[in-house]
Amino acid sequence: MEHRILGERYELVEQLGHGGMGTVHRAVDRRLRRTVAVKTLSAELALQPEFLARFQREAHAAAALNHPGVATVHDVGEDAGGGSAEPYLVMEYVPGRALSQVLADGLLPVAQAVDLAGQVLDALEHSHRHAIVHRDIKPANVMLTATGRVKVVDFGIAKALSEVATRLTGTGVAVGTPAYLAPEQINGAETDHRTDLYAVGCLLHELLTGRPPYTGDSPFSVMHQHLAAVPPAASALRPGLPPAVDEVIRRALHKNRADRFADATEMKAALDAAAGAAPAAPVRTPTALDPRAGAVAAGAPAPSPAPPRGEPAGRAARRWPARVVFRPTAEGAVALLGCFLALVISRSEVIEVGRFSHVALGAAVAGAVLLPWSARLACAVVWGPVAEAVAVWSELSRGSLGWDTRYVVIALLLGAVAALCFAAGYRDERSGGFALIAFWFTGLTSVWFFLDDLHKIGVFYVLLLGVTLAVGAQVLKARTRPPRAAAEPRGTADAAHAAAGTGAAARG
Ligand SMILES: Nc1ncnc2c1ncn2[C@@H]1O[C@H](COP(=O)(O)OP(=O)(O)O)[C@@H](O)[C@H]1O
Ligand SMILES: [Mg+2]
């Protein structure tokens, strides 16, 4: 079959797609004998005076870009074969699918969406450093290769087009896809690199939720929302999305450029930090006891031709808001032992004051129930009654020792150590349970020394309730809070953790 040949060099083999500005073909460069992508622009555009010069100028600028995330521009020209000049652009052929096609197959795992947006930001960081603003970042202009890498196409084209459109319409409105247009593109103001960051915000929203932030019946309605509407929270459509990711999108979508991220690097850093916050963080090995891990892994759809590198984290990202993780850890085992001891103590007659046996029994049951959710919280609940019983048996009691200075000092020191242990256990999500156990022993021994009347059981009940509520609230907050993980090399930490075989079961 005869193929069309442009500029006596590029043989158009197959049409890859058709967009607002023209048609993209897979082609063979006969001179260099390689596959390329050729975009022919509609003949109408070629009729616009000066368009060709502008188009060539922008293509030359874009050709200076050299980055793995940017589809390289090889050549630009016009073919006079059909009578009128038909402008075309020759660029690197990217095997793979545009994100618009990938999205049509369904939602991506959060970690993958974040990874892809991060790669787009890397590419933009490079182009912005070369003073090239893309101006038409959208899923159709981001190609995903089989190895999970991203290549942004169409650098420079939007600029050439917007200049023509500005002249034709008096505004830049005619150019770009309404769903991703920044306010400054709509009202004809100056654009700069932050215009692209706005579009990445829209892109990320769509990658996470399947739809851009603003939709409507008409382009006009969408543009009006870009100018005036409060951006919707992506988490409203994607439950469980870390609030930090919402916040990144919200910031990128500021109407006023000065309120957005200063540059692509800053936005990428914020996104990475937000991703660290994603409950996805640990790359966990599912165990027989972790029914959810297995189910998610088995049921995870293949979102793209080849699972990108963020995939394991992506799977983990699809977890329940209240993370219940059954994994044997030292902290979990100690919490279980505490449940057992609290149960034994509740059945024995060591302390026959007030309702202590009921409280100990309640603590044992509560600890067992809370254990799968948070071993730390379980430790805080069950080791209280155990420590109280031990304190009662302890010889360090003022009743028998009196106000002997030595013992007062020891009791005071124990009290101080208890405060430190509580602070450590309150903060440490991974294995704070151990510190909380130490808190109970030192703290109650100290309390027992100073209060040797009947009130101390009341003091104990108040402490038990207070500690349970404080740690419980902190665990809850930690599970919903944006991560502190930006700086922490997660992978390494988790790998080390896994290697040590002590991955916090039920972290928190
Ligand atoms: N360099 C390329 N390599 C491979 N396919 C491409 C390339 N550039 C574009 N395409 C494909 O061609 C389609 C049409 O592109 P385009 O004409 O720019 O329209 P739009 O970007 O509006 O979809 C894209 O969606 C993409 O699937
Ligand atoms: Mg395109």
Structure commentary:
- With 508 residues, the chain is α+β, with helices and mostly antiparallel strands.
- It folds into 2 domains: 5-286 and 295-300, Transferase(Phosphotransferase), domain 1; 330-480, no CATH class.
- It contains 20 helices and 9 strands.
- The strands form 2 sheets. A 6-stranded antiparallel beta sheet has the order 1-2-3-4-6-5.
- The model is unreliable at 166-175, 278-321 and 482-508 (pLDDT under 50).
- Bound molecules: adenosine-5'-diphosphate (ADP) and magnesium ion.
Summarize the structure.
This is non-specific serine/threonine protein kinase. With 508 residues, the chain is α+β, with helices and mostly antiparallel strands. The chain has helices spanning 43-47, 51-63, 99-104, 110-129, 157-169, 183-186, 193-209, 219-228, 243-252, 264-277, 291-299, 311-317, 330-347, 356-370, 375-393, 398-401, 405-427, 432-450, 455-480, 490-500, and strands at 5-6, 10-19, 22-29, 34-41, 73-79, 86-92, 97-98, 142-144, 150-152.
Question: Per CATH, which architecture of the largest domain?
Answer: Orthogonal Bundle
Question: How much of the polypeptide forms β-strand, as a percent range?
Answer: 5-15%
Tally of helical runs: 20
Kindly report the name of the CATH homologous superfamily of the largest domain.
Transferase(Phosphotransferase) domain 1
How would you classify the helix and strand content by structural class?
alpha+beta
Fold-level CATH name of the largest domain = Transferase(Phosphotransferase), domain 1
**Average pLDDT across residues?**
80
Oligomer: single chain
What ranges have pLDDT less than 50 throughout 5 or more consecutive residues? 166-175, 278-321, 482-508
In N-to-C order, the SSE pattern is EEEEHHEEEHHEEHHHHHHHHHHHHHHHH
CATH class of the largest domain: Mainly Alpha
